[in-house]
Each structure stands twice: as C-alpha cells, then as structure tokens.
Design brief:
The chain is built from 13 helices and 7 strands. It has 310 residues and is an alpha/beta fold. Helix 6 links the parallel strand 4 and strand 5.
Length: 310
C-alpha cells in the first residue's frame, strides 16, 4: 500500500515521538512489545539511524527491557547492523522471494545477494559473537511465480547457513494501483501448507529431500493433504508404528502426533507406564482420527470411529 509509486500522503514519527508513544501504550497495558519497521524515506542509512535512535531512547531513556523486533533495512551499514543486534531481541531482513530472479519480479531495485543476504550474514556473525537473539525473514508467496520447492529450498538454507530462528510466509494479496494489481491472490491454504512443511524441516527432523517426495511435477505441495500426511501415504512400509515401542523420531512422523505428545509418551515410558488405550493417547494430545491408521496400541490396530471417544 505504501510503495513509492503510489501517490498518497506520507507520515512519519520522529524517534522521540515513536518512543514516547510506545511507552504510553505500554504503561497502559495496551502493548507488551514493539515490532519496528519503516519505509525507506529516500535514504536507507538515515532511516535506519532514526529507527536505531528510537530503540536507544526506549532502552536507555525510558528503561524499556521488553521485547523489540527491529527490521534491518536493505542498505543499512555494517555498524548499524551490529548496533541493531545489540539493542533488539530479534532482527530481520525480509528476502521477499527465494531467488534473485524472483525478487527482480517484485522489487527490481533490490539486489538479492548484496542488499539482503550480505546483511543476513552480518546479523548471523554478530549474533554468534553476542551469544544472543536471533534473526528471521519472510517471503511473499505467489507474487513472483515461485514454486513451493523453491521457497522451502531457500528456507532450508536460511536455517542451516544463516542460523535463522524462523521463516515466515505471507500469501500475496493484490493491491490497487500497484504493478501486480491484476495478479491473482494466493490461496491462504498454500500459506498454511508451507508453514506445515516448514515445521517438518525445523522441528520434526525431516530433510528437504524427504519433502521433495510430496511435491507435484511443478514443485508444489498438495493443497488437499498436509505434507506430513502426504509423506505417510507415500511410505506405507513405515507403518503401522507401535506407540509403546517407537523411538521419538518415529513417533513424531505419525500424522496426528506432535512433538509434545511424543515427549509425553516417552516420559510415561520412563516411568514404565504404557499407553493402554486410544482414549489415553487422546488425553496426551494426539489427534486420534489422524493417527490411528498409522499406529497400533498393545497390538490393536485402528479402531472404529465410534470408539475414538470411548
């Protein structure tokens, strides 16, 4: 909405105005933390200086010790990036698209490797020295014709090489009076499937190679099935799994069983207690209707739907 090509009124805060306004909101209990970003205002270095000054005021003048997420602007200097890492709890530079060619489709003025990745490398290195915080990034999904495979391949690199804490996905929505106003919106369900696949990479021990098995010929995740369930359907040789014998990595690959439920099962096992019924498994947090076709309890396979609540 605020892109430079749109003719509309612009407003901005001074660093002091922003800091004092935030503190008033914080003191009345309306907000707990701050996510601070900005348009470039013509000069990225000057704008980044103003953002940093606002955070300095919050930290040192007003004594705010809570959560601050600070966006690092493309064009920020190395010293500015270092200070951002020292002042904020979380810093981020949005990649917006998974490759240089895709980024040029939606933001031709940005250079992928120089404006974005170089600064993400600085953030990674500064945070490693400080031993604190973390960085994140975001993609606009569907604006540049990228595939889910391309998005997840780049996200995988972000986690492995840039030590990202989180990668976010935002389904594209066309905006009037912009170059992509006639581009179709991205289905929200595609965004959901990307988050589910990202969770499998980040928290469930799946590799990108394994996820590739569920992509279609165009590198897209199925919208009709979540990727964990799609993977299970492609590997019938791995199931059913005995809930009382399976290791942690086997448990979390069962559709309907998440990390917390698997941890609860293992804690019971440490106490020499077995899961003895579907009802007990449901009380541990499992989605029985999803999990039952892929597991057995005490040698018993999938029960009827009627027995799920018994």
């Amino acid at each position: 909405v605020n892109r430079c090509s749109r003719s509309q009124r612009r407003e901005s805060f001074t660093p002091e105005e922003l800091a004092s306004t935030f503190m008033k909101l914080h003191e009345t209990g309306l907000v707990k933390g701050l996510f601070l970003s900005s348009g470039l205002g013509g000069d990225p270095v000057k704008t980044m200086d103003d953002m940093l000054e606002a955070v300095r005021l919050l930290r040192f003048k007003y004594g705010f010790k809570g959560y601050i997420h600070l966006k690092v602007l493309p064009g920020a200097t190395q010293s500015q990036v270092k200070e951002a890492c020292m002042l904020a709890n979380r810093v981020s530079v949005n990649q917006e698209a998974p490759t240089p060619s895709h980024l040029s489709e939606i933001a031709s003025q940005k250079e992928f490797r120089v404006d974005i990745v170089r600064r993400q490398l600085w953030i990674r290195d500064f945070l490693a020295k400080l031993g604190r915080g973390g960085q994140s990034t975001q993609y606009v999904v569907g604006a540049a014709g990228e595939s889910d495979e391309e998005l997840l391949k780049t996200a995988w690199k972000c986690y492995k090489e840039l030590k990202m804490k989180r990668v976010y996905y935002s389904a594209f929505i066309p905006i009037p009076r912009t170059p992509l106003e006639d581009h179709p919106p991205t289905p929200k369900l595609r965004e959901v499937r990307l988050y589910q696949a990202d969770f499998l990479l980040r928290g469930y021990g799946f590799s990108l190679k394994e996820l590739r098995e569920v992509f279609d010929d165009n590198g897209m995740l199925p919208l009709s099935l979540d990727p964990k369930l799609a993977y299970a359907h492609r590997h019938p040789e791995l199931y059913p799994v005995d809930v009382n014998e399976a290791e942690f990595q086997e448990l979390i690959r069962i559709p309907g069983i998440g990390v917390r439920t698997a941890q609860k099962i293992l804690k019971l096992r440490e106490k020499r207690v077995k899961v003895g019924s579907w009802k007990q498994l449901a009380m541990l947090g499992a989605n029985i209707k999803r999990a039952a076709p892929f597991m057995v309890i005490e040698g018993r396979s999938q029960p009827s739907l009627l027995s799920f609540t018994q």
